[in-house]
Design goal:
The complex is a heterodimer of chains A (80) and B (79).
Chain A: E1 2-4, E2 26-33, E3 36-42, H1 47-61, H2 70-79
Chain B: H1 7-20, E1 26-32, E2 37-43, E3 48-53, H2 57-73
Helix pairs in contact in B: 1-2
The chains are: A alpha+beta (80), B alpha+beta (79).
Chain lengths: 80, 79
């Protein structure tokens, strides 16, 4: 994930005309798995929508991590 | 590759690094289901910070930081 200013050409050398300052920045997202790659650019107005979808995706799929052991701890505390 | 010990430290470093050089900074999330590990990295090709976790509660924090950075990136301001 990085900031995207819409420029697809390298930065001109010194003395050459500089590209115009972008009026609005976007957010570039890339994802890869093995050999397949996908990418997208998010506009300002789509940030909320994308983030909601992305949050659902990671919350639903990153389920291989260790869960909090709240119950076990509280039980052992009451016993002690 | 400097690993950061705590999430709060990482989040602080990440925002600092981003605000220092917005256009060059990138944020990378890696998730390995089979190892049950989540690695997040932020770098501007000069300095780099990484954080690795195995705990599910960090997913929520990751979501918060992602939202913050995304909003920073897709904004009209220079920062």
């Amino acid at each position: 994930m990085k900031r995207y200013d819409g420029l697809t050409k390298p930065k001109p050398r010194k003395g050459r005309p500089q590209p115009p300052e972008p009026s609005e920045y976007k957010c570039l997202i890339r994802a890869s798995l093995g050999n397949s790659k996908i990418s997208t650019v998010i506009n300002q107005k789509d940030v909320n929508k994308f983030h909601l979808a992305y949050a659902n995706l990671i919350k639903g799929n990153m389920d291989g991590l260790k869960k909090k052991e709240k119950k076990g701890k509280s039980k052992s505390k009451t016993k002690a | 590759m400097p690993h950061v010990k705590t999430w709060d430290d990482f989040a602080r470093h990440a925002e600092m690094l981003y605000l220092n050089d917005p256009i060059k900074t990138r944020f990378v999330v890696k998730y390995r289901h089979c190892d049950g590990k989540l690695t997040v990295k932020i770098t501007d090709d000069q300095s780099c910070f990484m954080y690795q976790t195995e705990h599910a509660q960090d997913v929520k924090k990751l979501e918060k930081l992602t939202s913050l950075l995304m909003r920073h990136m897709a904004s009209k301001e220079n920062k």
